[in-house]
């Protein structure tokens, strides 16, 4: 707003070292001051000034505001003195005379003078006649803006009865009791660390079963190569489901065969815990074995790839992501079923498998804890 | 407005002059906007439903500020004339009339307002130089 309305250049603003009010915190009367500043600049410009020093402009703005307030105070004082609350022209004339007294006003020496013929007013009339009109540069809205304040509703509004007869109903209502009364809260669930761990283990086993089923399906698809599209959809679904939340994986039905053998992997790993066995990987071991080496397993086809007995397998815990993916590729190579679609599918599956492996790895940690505890 | 019984024609003239003036005020738009004047007057307790009075106050304030500024302008021009006498080459540069704190404080002194500006802040190499010869 500062640069609007003043046609003269404000080059001296840059030369002035003092910073403007932008560095200070906004005061309450910021808008009024800004408007007055522009008005002062316009007045000076009409006199012939071509530039202003910022500090001088600020000082003159202050002067203007003080003058306005002074006139108001004096005029209201005179009105009150006469027993009125509203000011009229005579109050203003007296106020102007008082303010101009130090400078000298024409006709001050005359006593018993009617205010209508006051020299001050005459001077003002002369001023208006001589001066050409320079209206303010921009339309100024009515200020200060009165905001509708939301008050606290009274007891009557809330249709509440005030507690206690000494409180009238038109007073603001009390806040809700929960905002100022603190009642102790008890945790209803009793927590047993042992029960929690057992629960956790159960849930993890469920996840393992689901993953194992998934893995089997993948292997089946690779080995058979038929109706792969249908299965991929299903397994993608499965992958998604598993990837999203292994704990939400559907529990396996008792019909599925592999369940019976994998019911208590913790037990098995306890027995064969010499090596770095992890129950999940153990479960997958036969499948991986089948993929890596044995054509004999492939002859089983879509059926159970898991032999009855488990083979002890050593695993390298590689940090790379292709723990399970690599064998599949090998399998593909062996089969010689390198169709473009299969490759694509396998690539897609690799990504999903990485996710599944991530989950696997996570579950691997906890069974280890279980074994140790 | 207070209509006293007029004893002489002079007063009657004044009265009519004033009422004419107030009527003419509505045509004349003072440089200080009405809203601003109203705001500060209401802050200090001035209450009036009459717009003409607001305009009167605005015009009176404008007159006052114009007087102060014109006094400062006279000081500025006087200083320029004095400088030009000494150095002719500065004539072109000092054609611009700039409102400075110096001139303003001199003119305000006559109105009873004491505005003292810091002579210098010792934070830059160009402190203490005569303001008239400082590069604007």
From TrEMBL, chain A:
Tagged with keyword Membrane: no
Family matches, as CDD domains: TAF8
Name assigned to this protein: Transcription initiation factor TFIID subunit 8
Pfam families hit by this protein: Bromo_TP, TAF8_C
Residues of the Bromodomain associated domain: 29-105
Signal peptide: none
InterPro entries tied to this protein: BTP, Histone-fold, TAF8, TFIID_su8_C
SUPFAM superfamilies, alphabetized: Histone-fold
Region (Disordered): 1-25
Keywords from the UniProt entry: Nucleus, Transcription, Transcription regulation
Gene3D superfamilies: Histone, subunit A (1.10.20.10)
Compartment(s) where it occurs, according to its Swiss-Prot or TrEMBL record: Nucleus
Automatic annotation (TrEMBL), chain B:
Molecular-function GO terms, alphabetical: promoter-specific chromatin binding; RNA polymerase II general transcription initiation factor activity
Name of the protein in its database record: Transcription initiation factor TFIID subunit 10
BP GO annotations: transcription initiation at RNA polymerase II promoter
Subcellular location(s) of the protein: Nucleus
Keyword Nucleus belongs to the record: yes
UniProt source species: Hibiscus trionum (Flower of an hour)
Presence of the UniProt keyword Transcription in the record: yes
Similarity comment: Belongs to the TAF10 family.
InterPro entries: TAF10 (IPR003923)
GO cellular component: SAGA complex; transcription factor TFIID complex
CDD domains recorded: HFD_TAF10 (cd07982)
Record's function text: TAFs are components of the transcription factor IID (TFIID) complex that is essential for mediating regulation of RNA polymerase transcription.
Keyword annotations of the record: Nucleus, Transcription, Transcription regulation
């Amino acid at each position: 707003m500062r640069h609007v309305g003043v046609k003269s250049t404000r080059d001296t603003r840059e030369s002035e070292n003092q910073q403007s009010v932008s560095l200070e915190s906004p005061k309450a009367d910021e808008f009024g001051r800004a408007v007055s500043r522009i008005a002062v600049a316009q007045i000076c410009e009409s006199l012939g000034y071509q530039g202003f020093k910022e500090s001088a402009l600020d000082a003159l703005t202050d002067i203007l505001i003080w003058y306005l307030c002074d006139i108001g105070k004096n005029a209201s004082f005179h009105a009150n003195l006469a027993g009125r609350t509203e000011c009229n022209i005579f109050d203003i004339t007296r106020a102007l005379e008082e303010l101009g007294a130090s400078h000298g006003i024409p006709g001050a020496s005359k006593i018993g003078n009617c205010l209508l013929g006051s020299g001050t007013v005459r001077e003002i009339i002369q001023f208006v006649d001589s001066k050409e009109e320079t209206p303010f540069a921009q339309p100024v809205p009515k200020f200060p803006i009165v905001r509708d304040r939301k008050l606290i509703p009274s007891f009557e509004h809330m249709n509440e009865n005030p507690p206690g007869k000494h409180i009238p109903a038109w007073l603001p209502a009390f806040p809700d009791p929960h905002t100022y009364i603190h009642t102790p809260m008890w945790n209803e669930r009793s927590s047993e660390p042992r029960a929690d761990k057992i629960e956790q283990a159960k849930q993890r086993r469920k996840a393992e079963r689901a993953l194992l089923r998934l893995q089997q399906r993948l292997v089946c698809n690779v080995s058979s190569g038929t109706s792969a599209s249908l299965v991929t959809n299903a397994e993608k679904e499965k992958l998604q489901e598993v990837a999203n939340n292994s704990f939400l994986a559907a529990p396996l039905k008792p019909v599925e065969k592999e369940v019976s053998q994998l019911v208590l992997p913790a037990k098995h790993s306890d027995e064969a815990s010499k090596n770095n066995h992890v129950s999940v990987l153990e479960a997958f071991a036969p499948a991986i074995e089948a993929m890596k080496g044995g054509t004999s397993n492939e002859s089983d086809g879509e059926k159970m790839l898991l032999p009855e007995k488990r083979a002890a397998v050593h695993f390298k815990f590689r940090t790379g992501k292709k723990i399970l993916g690599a064998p599949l590729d090998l399998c593909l190579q062996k089969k010689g079923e390198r169709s473009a679609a299969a490759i694509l599918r396998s690539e897609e599956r690799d990504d999903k498998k990485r996710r599944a492996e991530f989950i696997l790895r996570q579950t691997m940690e906890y069974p280890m804890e279980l074994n140790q505890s | 407005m207070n209509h006293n019984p007029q004893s002489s024609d002079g007063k009657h003239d004044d009265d009519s002059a004033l009422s004419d003036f107030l009527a003419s005020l509505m045509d004349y738009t003072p440089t200080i906007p009405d809203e601003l004047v109203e705001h500060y007057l209401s802050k200090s307790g001035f209450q009036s439903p009459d717009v003409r009075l607001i305009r009167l106050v605005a015009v009176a304030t404008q007159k006052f500020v114009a007087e102060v500024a014109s006094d400062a302008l006279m000081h500025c021009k006087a200083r320029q004339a004095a400088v030009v006498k000494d150095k002719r080459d500065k004539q072109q540069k000092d054609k611009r009339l700039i409102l400075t704190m110096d001139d303003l404080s001199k003119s305000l002194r006559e109105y009873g307002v004491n505005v003292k500006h810091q002579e210098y802040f010792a934070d830059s190499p160009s402190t203490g130089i005569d303001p008239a010869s400082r590069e604007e």
